[in-house]
Design goal:
Chain lengths: 772, 195
Amino acid sequence: MNIGRKSLSFVLAAALIFGVAMVGTATAAVVYTDAAEGSYYSSITATGGTALLGQVHDLIVSTHTKYTSYDECKTKGTTTDPGLDGKGYLEFYTHETLTSFGGSVGTANREHVWCQSLSNGLWGTSGAGSDMHHIRPSESSLNSTRGNNKYGKVTSGKKEAYSKKSGGAQSKLGGYVGGGVFEPLDNVKGDAARIVMYVYTHYNKGKNVGGTLDSRGSGTLNFTNVMAASSEAAARELLLEWNALDPVDAIEEKRNEEVFKIQGNRNPFIDHPEYASAIWGDGKYDPPVSDVKPTSLSITPSAVTMSVGGTANLTVTPTPSNASKEVKWSVYPTNVVTIVDGKLTAYAEGQATVTATSTLDQNVKATASVTVKKAEGGGSAAGSFIIDRSSVDTGGSNYAFHDWSAGSVKGIAYIYTGNKDAMQFNSSKDSYYIASTTAALGPITKVTVKGQEDKDEKSWKLLTSSTPYGEVAKKPANGNDRGTKTVTENGVTWEVTGSDTYFALTYEDSSAAYLNSITVEYGPSQGETPPPHVHHFEYENVGDKDDHITTCTGCDYGEIEPHVYSSDTDTTCDLCGYVRTVHTHEYQYTPLDDTYHTVTCKDCDKLNDREVHVYSDSTDTTCNKCGYERTLGGEHVHTKQYEDIDDTYHRVTCDCGIDEREAHEYTDDADPTCNLCGHVRAIVDEEKLAAFHTAVEGVKTEGALSARRQSLLAALNAYNALSDDEKEAAADDYAALSAAVEAYDADVEAMNEAAQEANDLFAPKKKGEKNA
Amino acid sequence: MKKKIFAGLAVVAVACCGLAGCSLTPDSTEDGYEFLNEMLKVSYSRIVLTVENDFGEDKLTSVYTMVYGEDAVTVSYSVERFAPLSSAVGPIETKTGMIEIAGGEVTVTEGDDIGLTAAVAALPFDFRAEYFENADLGGNFFYADVKDSAGFLGEQVACTEMKIQANFGEVFSSIAVRYAASSGEEVRAAYSFTK
């Protein structure tokens, strides 16, 4: 098996790759290193399987310090994906150069190698959806053709998939499509495989891949989401096959470096393609999360009664027992309870249905019913939540925005997660605040903040608001200012009045600050208006060529709505994924009689016309379209012969006695060869010739040398821009220019001689002294 | 008294300096020209010669700076020439360099070679009445039209309207000669003297 280009730094590694048993040798930790990536992989000590996968996951998540925007995937494309001549953008599937991004045919689109619609809802145009290791430029038409077809081997209805040029002409072959599958060309298969493996490894939750960290926008991903394979094992086998078939090349290596400089992390499967087989090859892989599809699911308890403000937990049991328990939770209506990872939080009085859908098979579901009653006194009960270091996600190790959650409340904090003991802020790193992005269950009444023991006491300001806080540069200033206090290790409390349910704590001091905990107390709600319902649409492809069914997961919205396509050539509905056929007539002509032929389409029955035959001229006997042979009824058919005479004419003769002079015939202005006699003409650009002539006419032959020189150089530059044919055509002007150049040099020589005479007279260099 | 070093010239002390009863103020024309010639023999520490060739819309300027030391003369120069069309430096190119003259010979050369010899440090003038007309010699100036350039400069010059103007005190402060060359350009040669 081709293991790719990388070599391992230890002899043990070679044995590992080829599965050679190390007899009599203790299994040593293998460190994968390569000069190009420095010590990036120094934390990798595992040798394979889930252990290696987990370490790789943690490494690429923790070093992913810059999450690029979708727009940056385009603006930085000239750095990460330059065209073959260094300009424009390199098309992912065809390796041709595209000159610009845009929406029209012949321009580049941002291709999600792992389609958005196949991501289990984890990304659109952020997170993995704007990860530059993932997003690649692809020609608009080819991008549409790939659509959301899974990667794999096309085995039915195979058609070639081409990119197109501006104007619609076919450009280059980019792969094959058929039966809902897209197969890249062999020289791209490895690239695609290594991107799929990167996305799978990075954006699966840590627990799914043996890691400890959860990145932004992570969830549950399976290879079968994006690979056309019957099982996860078959999908992995196909990825390993593609990884070996198409090794890492220089383009991938350079791209990896460029994205690394932007994002902070690397695609490990480009640096170390051998990781793939080390992790998933030869039965080494023991998935932390089952990849067996359940045939059914059940939820325990199947019916829940709760009070407003209360919580409850639901668990999922799959059949068979070893099948995957991974589900996507949904609830209807959405304003009664919320559910996160099986944990219910009651919002308002009412009834709700909770649904668990298997991530491996969306047809396998289970439901549970929830009844929520009013808390005593009406509305939701009072309560509190505490935020500490453990509340914050642990991805990355630099100052950045990180998500936190405490109970049902979520938020963001711009902190340094390299500190595992406290929430660390620092004014020099623009690390200034922590805030909530979802509402407390009741109006905030008190906020108590404790600093870390033995750390300097610093100033903090509390803001509260009725609207969510978001990510801003420095710190937010909106909301009600509850005052600035010095936070101590024993804690300081703000008493809050009003109905605000969101808070922001902003750092008002300098250097580093460390917070141990934030306790937010909220009062009971008065059962007032729950948040307005927001539709969460789902689109069902029912196989209809015109429409799909649109429903809302949180209410009884249900409509038949038309498919939505990005363009006339787009074959895949943007919402439900229905693939339509965009038909282009393929004309065929069939002789009908002496005058007509029929025009039909090879692939459809919508075209049936009649046209007259088309001949090149009166002597042409064969119809240019249908091939019908006509008889010219006894007339002489000329057999013309052409003889080149001069630059303008050729002689036309025929056995019948024709002897004429005709002008040469060319296909267009750029065609140098006469179509009839073969005369080769000089192709000249009249505009350039005119420009040269004008420059020669403008040459100064007297006056200041500097002006004469400038005019001569301008004319010489215009001459040098001419082609050989044009120079020949400009011979007269060039002769005049040459004469002017000679005259200039002669004048220069004469003036220099005169000046030298004067210099020699006063600064004598030949004659002797006068004043002996 | 510092020796004057003109390459090939005998050292001539300015006898008047320091001797009682000698006056540098000319009493007669003949004495005046003798006086001017005597000032040419003074040991100047520095002489700067600027030669301008003015072709109307184009001008070349060359500067020679002669520094006289105990045993040697250092001549630094910057000489302008019109450049050929093929030159990338522009319409005028400048040659610069330095030579050192000792014992009547060029002993050190640096920079661009413009063919200077040891004679460069000499002054070409000879003041005699018969070389001039319309002369005006005052207490600290001398103006005249040069009618005999061969006599005055040691070389016949094809020109018209050669004029000389000299300013002095105890020694020369400046000498300027200008003329219209028959080839059309106007030439101006200006010396400034430092004792």
